[in-house]
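Quick note —
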Amino acid sequence: MNARRRTGTETAHHVVVLGAGYAGMAAAVQLAARSGRRPGARVTLVNADDRFTERMRLHAATGQPLAELSVPELLEGTGAAFVRGWVTAVDADARTVRIDDERVLTYDTLVYALGAVADTTSVPGAADHAYTLDGAQDAALLAGRLARLDSGTVTVVGTGLTGIESAAEIAERYPRLKVVLLGAREPGADLNRKAGTHVRAALGRLGVEVRAGAEVTKVLPGGVELAGGEGVMADAVLWTGGTRVSPLAAAAGLETDGRGRIVTDAALRSVSHPEVYAVGDAAAVRQGYGAMHGTCQSGMPTGVHAALSVDRALRGKQPKPFRFGHYHTPVSLGRGDAVVQFTRPDGSPRHICLTGRVAVRYKETVTASPWPTYGRMRKMPASGAFWPRGGRWTRVRAGR
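Predicted structure written out below.
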């Protein structure tokens, strides 16, 4: 990678970060902190909103407001620029980004962090009739709908972690409403026996009706239709059944996998365009145990590692391989209960877990940690470069 591009005169190497989610913010803050100490580099962060969304709290936003966390304020004094707008196109060959179909940014290095959203395209009617939790506005829309219901049924589609947390939160916050949780698998199926049993008992205590083995084939204005034709009536449907990434990467000509995620090398660079780094949900990151699944705990390290890699390249050094091992799965079960499942580096459950109040305190510590972490990184960049590497689990053997 050349430290600078030449266009008649020598200019600063421009690093553009797309997306201010957990991974994108980590990359932008780390880059801003480091580039501010080195001439010849500048950073621009692009995001659709100037507010940082704590996605781990969106399920709770159905009953309480989210904190107002300002991205420009966090970047203030670092020298990094913030551009508010929707990314509508990327030209990987020309190294340009189009914003709101009106403005164009050029880059020398791109950090692509446009994460995933709820996949409402796979089932007819989901995009038109279901609520999602993709951002603060989505959560506010659902909260408004729930507040207007004196009685009725809320159907949550998807028995993964978001579905579990949302169903529990809604059932506790709105006891006058019936909550039905639908999905192909039992809630907590990926947890150990004790943790999974606790999850299902908590849902039962909150009055959530769980229907495992249910496949939703259509979302209607007044409910959902299941495989076989059965209808489940609902006054509101929340869709948490899977995610999808933006098609912009594939449209830009970047090599992507079957889910549209950018295929990366060991240093998180695009295998087709090495001046592009992909992080968080937007990246297909391979470890010794297989493709890494996107979470906050893994997303922030990918952002920091991409920033460290860019910094090394600007200093004429080779980026190092990225390695990460998962270590826990925290699950909220309303305000007063939770489960924390400790995991092996590949994400499979260990025998150890926490439940009840101690798990609530642990989960809140984890949920509240990203924003202060960005603040510390701004002052001490090295403070963000610590995470579990996963030992033998994450080593990618030659020929695999």
